[in-house]
Amino acid sequence: MDVLIRTRDLSKTIEGKLLFDNASFEVVPDNCIGIIGPNGCGKTTLFKILLGLVRPNDGELWFKDNIQIRYLEQTAIRSQNLTAHQFLVQTTQTDSIQQQIKSYELQLEDPAIYDSSEYEEILEKIQKLQMSDGRVDNTSRLEDAIDIIEEIGSGKLSLDSKISILSGGERQKLALASVLAQSQECDLLLLDEPTNHLDIETIEWLERQLVDFPRAIMLISHDRYLLDDLVDRVFEMRGGHIEIFDATYEKYEEQKNLRQHLKHQAYAKTMADVKRRKASIEKMSRRNRFDSQISSKMKRLKKLQHVENPIIKDYLLRFHFENVFKSGKNIADGGNLSKSFDDNLILNDVSFEILSGQKIGLIGPNGCGKTTLLKMLISAEKPDSGILNISRGARVGYFDQGHLSLNLDNTLIEEILRDQKDLKETDAKALLGQFNFRGNAVYNQVGKLSGGERARLAFLRLIMQPYNFLILDEPTNHMDLESKTAIEGALNSFSGTVIVVSHDRRFLNNVTDTTFLMTNTSIITYKGNYSASRLQHQKELLNTPGAKLRDMPGGNLKKYVVKKSFTDWTTRRKYKIGEEILIGDHNLELYEWAINNSRLKCLRKNK
Length: 607
Hints:
The chain contains 19 helices and 23 strands. The strands form 6 sheets. It has a 6-stranded mixed beta sheet with strand order 5-6-7-3-8-9, sandwiched between helices. Helix 5 packs antiparallel against helix 6. It starts with a strand and ends with a strand.
């Protein structure tokens, strides 16, 4: 199979920090590679090296001739004064060719290149690229980009709007439309956090585009659901290394657990060896402390003692919420609530109840009013009509997605001590250290932190207080996988009530037991997590006159009827003749046997 990119012993250090060393890998046309690792480990830098925008410190890079690369940046749009249409016109040009030319021009900056045989080759490649630039039909690209916007823009994104007034989700949709337009022209798609600011419906739309994408993809993401569905290789960046797993994300998790188990076994064996050697040296010293063998044994022992403890290396943030207050059966309820902003109706005659101990996932498209509802629950917004009751016993902790609770002028130490008069500075340092803020970093200004770092700091401030009702607005935005896993563990051990807005489907599946779906100015309540609520919602939509399967969440849904009774032995559920089942990409594997053995018959195709 053709190779698109080959690297050998690639290394990169920035400001004295080693990002990765001796990285060797290949990218081939049918790859979908997930790039994962903690924030700041160098994932985006690796992309920029592959694009020729950043030079590695060491190592070799080889590219297929005339390789075409399309790139979605993490901060996709910087031009605030352009209209959406002007942005699409500019960015649907042959940018990948220009990136390649810049890459080769960067190589020519090295004086040593002029004495090598590569000099003439690079000049020839630049000339070929310059000749091919402009031959692509940019009008067709622009039309495709506009079609994509019409498909995912929900009718709210006007191409005449200035980018400065667009929401984060609308900007991300614009950037995606630009990158995915005429994407069949490229050999490799580089996507840096493509689901940032997107609602679940758009994320699922993007998934369907990428599943069918006929070229190689490299994807930086903390969305485990997306990684689960798409990737066939995983590059894990951690501790200055890139570890490669030729596996799906699910298999990667299994392999990683096995590798960690083997590392722990090897570490335990090494520590046992250290203990035995120490005892041997002490025994020899008692007999004859001038024995020449003691010195060589001490050197070998010193090397063994430098072996890294994998348990400490893989230490996760440990979030723990206190709950010292009790509330009544209903911690909150709303009756006949309505809310609008100017002519935009958010809620219309809505009623709901939040029971003590419930873990509620609040989902719905961007702009439907999820954050407004949360602000009503903390009394930062008032309903236009209706009654909203909060239990007198409720002690509310609020996490806002903009981290507005943080004082950007404070240092990290000052921010931790702000509401904790009895806390000592040494204690604050210890707490910050548990959240990966170490050394002089604790004296940095909050305003200079990255999005993920601010989220961690805001969470630390939240868990330092005793609450029984947590209201969380996008708590895992910008957080790496380890931090998400730690938050999930804390919320699952929290005995109080939680309502959380999130577009992270795996996070919702792991944490919530109830779902509030905000749609068409109403709230629909479902029992169960995100996946359970989605199936219930799909079933309701299918029973709606005029509904089309292609419009259902998740896509590729078909309705089947049971022709011969059978039992699913994994769940021990019995299916009776005449029962109807919805089957799509998400659950096809469960019913494949029954379909192949004519126990299920498709009632209708996607329409």
